[in-house]
Amino acid sequence: xLKAESREKLVGVAAxxxxxxxxxxxxxxxxxxxxxxxxxxxxxxxFSRADGLHQGAPVRLAGxxxxxxxxxxxxxxYRAIMTLILNKNIPLPEDTAxxxxxxGVFGSKYIELQPGGSQxxxxxxxxxxxxxxxxxxxxxxxxxxxxxxxxAKTAAKNTIRNENPS
Length: 166
Known about the structure:
By secondary structure, this protein is of the alpha/beta class. It has two helices and eight strands.
């Protein structure tokens, strides 16, 4: 009996180590800098919040990796300035939007480019004028909890009124 328990514990520990190693390699793989790719164009995007986004994070268009975040800095107004380095020569309309997205619920962050309909195109070194900041899961959950509490409080008041009509 003891032998079976110790074997089960050993299998459990091994499975846990394999899962941790897999998650670690996945996270590190998303952050690798691909030095072999030659940049065809660079663009600047500024965000009020860039939580979880780092140098080397992917830049995607229609879900396809087309580049990476090259340089991250703060400007004098405390905005995150990102230099996007695209590996492919893809013309971007002037009204292209840069949106910070998350791979799944707890995945790494990346920038998704959504081209607009303009007939004029950004030049390399140009600024992407439309940006959407990172969504912070903790803040979102906090707002949902606040709304649920307010709704429960309102429902409780309505129940008391209905039980005690004047």
